[in-house]
Q: What sequence folds into this?
C-alpha cells in the first residue's frame, strides 16, 4: 500500500490530475494569462477607472473573481492609482511615470511603486470613488485578497503536479511585468504618437493583442473615456473586440468611442463645433497646416509669419482662462488673418478649418 501511495504521489508530481503534455500546459498558461489581461483592461481599466462602458452582472462578477485568484488585485486600489496617474501625469505625484521616476525603476520596480501608492489613504479616498462595495468585495475580495492567488496555486499544483508551481509563477508575474512594467514604463518612454498629448504617452505597437489593446497607450491618453483604444485603420485593439462581443450578447453597453474628424466643405464659418473638432484633432490640424506650408519654410519671412500663426492656433487649446465664446471669436479672427496673409498654404488651411466637424459615437 505504501509503495502504491508513493507511486501515485510520484505520478501526480510528474503529471498532475490532467496529465497534459508540455505544449498543452504552455497553451493553458497563455490562455489563463490572457484572460487576466482581458479582465484588467475591460473591467478594471475601461469599466471601473474610466466608466467607458457598463457591464452586466455576469461578466462583472466573473472578472472580479478571476482577478481575485489571478492577481490578488483590490479593485479600489487599482482604480484610484490609475485615476491619479491621469490626474497627475508625468509629475512627481504620478505613481508610476518614467518621466518622474526613471524608466528602469518603473520597468523593473513598478510593483513596488504600486504597493507604496496603495498605502496612501489620501489617494484611495480622493480617486477611488464608485468602486464595488458589496458583501463579496468587503468580506472576500478585499479582506482576503492574497488568499485568492493561494487558491490558484493549489489548483495549478493539483492539475499539473510540480510544474504547476512554474505555471502559477508565470500567472502571478504576468500583470506586474506587462501592466506595471511595460504599459506604465515603455508606454511613456518609447513608441509612436498619434496625438500630441500633454504627457509622454506612446503607442508601443499598433496591434494590441498581447496586452489586450493597452499597447495603444497614447490613443488612450488622448481619449481616456473611450472604450475603444484603436483610432487608425491599421491599428487593432483586441480588448475592443471582446467588448463588442459582450455588447452583441447584451452583456455590455458602450458609452463612448473616439470621435472621427469630418470635413464639411459647405460649412464656411467657425463655430463651437469647429472649435471642439479642432481641439480634439489638434495634432491632425497642425500636421495638415505644416504639410500645406512646408515648401515655404525655406524662406525666412514666411517662416516667421507662420510661426506666429502656429502659436496663435495652439493658444486656442492651451488657454484655459478664456471662455468658449471668446475662443470661437479668436478662431474666427485667426481665419480672417490667415486669409489676408497672402501665404497660399495658410490660406487653404483657413478655408478648410471652418468645416472641421466631429462625428461622435456616444451611446
A:
Amino acid at each position: 500500500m505504501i509503495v502504491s501511495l508513493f507511486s501515485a504521489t510520484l505520478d501526480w508530481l510528474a503529471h498532475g490530475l490532467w496529465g497534459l503534455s508540455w505544449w498543452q500546459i504552455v497553451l493553458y498558461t497563455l490562455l489563463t494569462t490572457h484572460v487576466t489581461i482581458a479582465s484588467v483592461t475591460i473591467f478594471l481599466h475601461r469599466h471601473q477607472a474610466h466608466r467607458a462602458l457598463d457591464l452586466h452582472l455576469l461578466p462583472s462578477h466573473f472578472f472580479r473573481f478571476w482577478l481575485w485568484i489571478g492577481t490578488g488585485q483590490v479593485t479600489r486600489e487599482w482604480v484610484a492609482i490609475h485615476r491619479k496617474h491621469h490626474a497627475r501625469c508625468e509629475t512627481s505625484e504620478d505613481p508610476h511615470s518614467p518621466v518622474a521616476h526613471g524608466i528602469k525603476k518603473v520597468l523593473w520596480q513598478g510593483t513596488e511603486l504600486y504597493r507604496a501608492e496603495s498605502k496612501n489613504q489620501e489617494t484611495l479616498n480622493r480617486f477611488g470613488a464608485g468602486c464595488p462595495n458589496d458583501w463579496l468585495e468587503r468580506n472576500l475580495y478585499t479582506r482576503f485578497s492574497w488568499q485568492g492567488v493561494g487558491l490558484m496555486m493549489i489548483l495549478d499544483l493539483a492539475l499539473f503536479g510540480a510544474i504547476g508551481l512554474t505555471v502559477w509563477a508565470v500567472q502571478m508575474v504576468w500583470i506586474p511585468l506587462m501592466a506595471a512594467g511595460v504599459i506604465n514604463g515603455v508606454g511613456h518612454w518609447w513608441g509612436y504618437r498619434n496625438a500630441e498629448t500633454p504627457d509622454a504617452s506612446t503607442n508601443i505597437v499598433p496591434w494590441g493583442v498581447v496586452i489586450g489593446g493597452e499597447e495603444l497607450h497614447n490613443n488612450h491618453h488622448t481619449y481616456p473615456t473611450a472604450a475603444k483604444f484603436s483610432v487608425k485603420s491599421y491599428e487593432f485593439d483586441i480588448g475592443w473586440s471582446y467588448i463588442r462581443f459582450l455588447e452583441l450578447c447584451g452583456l455590455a453597453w458602450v458609452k463612448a468611442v473616439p470621435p472621427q474628424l469630418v470635413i464639411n466643405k459647405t460649412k464656411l464659418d467657425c463655430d463651437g463645433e469647429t472649435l471642439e473638432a479642432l481641439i480634439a484633432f489638434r495634432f491632425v490640424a497642425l500636421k495638415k497646416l505644416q504639410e500645406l506650408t512646408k515648401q515655404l519654410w525655406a524662406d525666412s519671412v514666411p517662416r516667421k509669419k507662420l510661426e506666429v500663426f502656429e502659436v496663435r492656433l495652439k493658444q486656442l487649446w492651451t488657454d484655459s482662462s478664456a471662455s468658449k465664446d471668446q475662443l470661437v471669436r479668436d478662431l474666427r479672427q485667426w481665419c480672417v488673418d490667415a486669409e489676408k496673409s497672402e501665404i497660399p498654404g495658410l490660406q487653404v488651411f483657413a478655408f478648410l478649418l471652418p468645416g472641421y466637424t466631429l462625428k461622435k459615437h456616444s451611446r
Summary: The beta strands are 53-55, 207-208, 236-237, 252-254, 260-263, 356-359. The chain has 17 helices and six strands. The mean pLDDT is 90.
